[in-house]
Amino acid sequence: MSMSTSITRSTCPYCGVGCGVLIESQGQQITGVRGDPDHPANFGKLCTKGTTLHLTAAPEIARQTRLLQPMQRLARGAAPTPVGWDAALDLAAERFARTITEHGPDAVGFYISGQLLTEDYYVFNKLAKGLIGTNNVDTNSRLCMSSAVAGYKLTLGADAPPACYDDVNHADCLFIVGSNAAFAHPVLFRRIEEAKKNHPGMRVIVADPRRTDTADLADLYLPLQPGSDVMLFHGLLHIMLWEGWVDPAYIAAHTTGFDALRALVRECTPEHVAQVCGLNKEDLFTAAKWFATSPATLSLYCQGLNQSSSGTAKNATLINLHLATGQIGKPGAGPFSLTGQPNAMGGREVGGLANLLSAHRDLANPEHRAEVAALWGVPDVPSKPGKTAVEMFQAAADGEIKALWIACTNPAQSMPDQATVRQALKRAEFVVVQEAYATATTCDWADLLLPATTWGEKEGTVTNSERRISRVRAAVPAPGEARHDWRIAVDFAQRLEATLGANGVGAIGVRPEFRTTTPEATKNLERNSALTPMAEQPEKTLFPYQTPEQIWLEHRESTRGRDLDITGLSYEKLENEGPQQWPLREGEATGQTRLYENGHFPTPDGKARFAALPWQPLAEPRESRYPFSLTTGRLRDQWHGMTRTGTLGRLFGHVPEPVVQLHPQDIQRRGLKDGDLVHVTSKRGSILVPLQASSDIGLSQAFIAMHWGPEYLSGRSGAGEPLAGVNALTTSAYCPTSKQPELKHAAVKILKAELPWNLLAMAWLPAERALAVQAELRTLMPSFEFASCVPFGRDRAGVLLRASAHDAPDTALIERIETLLDLNTADTLRYVDKRLGQRRTARLLRDGGSTRLEAFVLAGDTRAEVWIKPLLADELPAEGYGRLLLMPGAKAPVAIVARSRQVCTCFNVSEDDIGAHLRRCDGSDEQRLASLQGGLKCGTNCGSCIPELRRLVRATPQGLQAA
Questions:
Q1: Full-prediction pTM beyond 0.90?
Q2: Is the Cβ–Cβ distance between 419 and 684 less than 8 Å?
Q3: d(CA 222, CA 138)
Q4: Which residues does the UniProt record annotate as the domain 4Fe-4S Mo/W bis-MGD-type (predicted)?
Q5: What torsion, rounded to 10 degrees, do the Cα atoms 235, 241, 243, 246 define?
Q6: What is the dihedral of CA 543, 545, 548, 551, to 10 degrees?
Q7: Which residues, 6 or more positions from 328, have their beta carbon under 8 angstroms from its beta carbon?
Q8: In angstroms, rounded to a whole number, what is the distance separating the alpha carbons of residues 671 and 662?
Q9: The CATH classification of domain 6-65, taken from the options 3.30.70.100, 3.30.590.10, 3.40.50.2000, 3.30.200.210
Q10: Fewest beta carbons within 10 Å, which of 594, 705, 887, 963?
């Protein structure tokens, strides 16, 4: 009898669009996922990542990747061993208490994540600031959204995006800058495409140094130079003033500070701006006119503005344009920051940053600190600013922070300047990593590993980019011994509270007399403990929570009277009425769709403030020794460090291996060619990576996807140290206001690598072993100067290892690789030439009347890759190939052409398939696209490939073949 299928409404764990999902499960296993048609963020749509969520939860993947029990590493470099939860938490409490006792509360730090739920975030914030008495709690959202926070607060008075997703349907001009929404926010981009189709008169401006899939939608594309955004915005305002395209009435009634800004932009003439930004004057005039004179202009922006040493200025000067033209507070208009992570907004709401407190309160404000202290029932909240992300790891590297707690993030992959990060992890005396996936690189540095639940197992809430709060629900129970993040933090906090109190340490909140210091504190504690009577709560604890809802109710109370007031919202309302936007005050039926419609802003005088901030050059400008500007960004089908998406070979079909992209002219000028292995070197480090030509990249610019960390791209430096992926190159220089690092630019040089010995190893493996083999191969990657290791395969599980070195490595290393790939069987074919450092190994599988290549290693000379790789990857017939597989430089007896690059992930449609179809059909671009979708199905499921399909339609001549 088949088991019945349950449906659970929840939220996608990827980007800040906050798509609703329906999780299908049978028993304790997630079996499917689809978009929730009733969720207002996505109305049933999902991207390539969202549609494959259930596959990442498959049992064979979980067994190979999940952290399922607490683990303790008794010595650095040793393998961790299992330990019980009580022992693990007791150890953590003892080590943190000892550090606090001996060195003070600022000797510890918490680095958390925009992928935590709001309830998780709240507990960590209270743990650090309310119990321990340190503001050293920061988040990877510092790398993502802190410049947006600073820009909103500086100009509009509060960290509150004023627009909503529906505004794309009302906009007459869409200004997309510093955002490749087609890749980073695909479901929102589907809305933009639909809005453009329904409103052909909508003008789309895209400003970005790279010509991305987003830029392909533009009516006007502005390929500005990296770091020149502030100059562009000042230049547009200069033109608006000159042409009389500003709104004097709105400026007078609703803003202050315009005179200072007008004086600043006086010198930003079109000629000067065009030179700095690398743009045409005519395009500047067109952009200014469309922005200012359209009935409604909406700006969408993301990391291109945020991840910058001038991030706050970029955000604020874009908002200046909206205030100067009155393009705010009405349908289709406003500055709309697109959140990068699923709950970066929720983290900001609970004060989960080193400079914030609950409900958008400022740490520097004594009244705000007193309000939070009263709510928590503690005498005070520390006033000393906490260490932000970059500062925290620098302080650990310097020995100032001695104990680190890292939750739900992978700083050994994602932080800039990995040399400093690794020094921090080495020098810290005690490192706790709270994580769902054992495969994250940061786990390698942990003294204590604590297994956490993840998507499909968690309960709580998240907030998306449009201020919409959604429920996250568990479809299946926690696997193994994994616990919810909030539960781990509460259990630790209660132990730490008891330990500090027993030691007589005067940390905030540990002494009983501080428990109810004021009547207001007593009132708040009683109100927020309503769900669990005080008699049933642990005695004298700041952390009495037994459910995530209890935590959420305390957070809700903290918002009373604030700009994000949600006192009218409850779990019950979210359950019955679905996701809601804030503010939603007590007594109100629904939240507020748009902010500032009445022209009143949350500032002392109710007026928005213009920010007269000058343009500043890049923190690390290009120069003769480092002539390229390197930027990083997202791939369409991957997410962050790929701990989840990297488990699926099918998500590597679109971009299968790491590369650095350069403009073809730069490649030609330097005597390089496509596919060459090159050194990419900054002042902080160097990596090796294959070269790829791309006309989407500007001259003297380079691009490497942000996802390629040491789990997938590695090797060893000249000093023998393991390389650390793309963030070995990036700079920790940051915006002085937001403290967000400049991940979008690093000055680099690019030189050809002379590594004559090469290796390519590929194998199909049992699904229950493939990821474990990949993890083992990862440990071998530093044995080579260059190595990359990725999964591949759609319906089968494959692993690919590519490596290069100056000299042939020890035979034992190659034999170890062969053993991992099941090339140690009796039927394995072998050829070895020790003198030339050549080695060939292959295994063929005969099944009935067909023969297929199942695994191979080419070591020394890999020229035969051109036909042997597709022979395996495309599962082509391999009868009669045995001897040829072992001959260096041998050519295939028949022409074997590798399948072209995958465009559509959902239906596995390649570029060649699309080209062949397009050459057979005539008509308009829309008719040919419709023919593609009807004939090949590409673009008919998630739609993530539609921008690329449109580009191929335009690029492919029609009617060249008979139908």
A1: yes
A2: yes
A3: 35
A4: 5-61
A5: 110
A6: -50
A7: 162, 322, 334, 335, 596
A8: 13
A9: 3.30.200.210
A10: 963
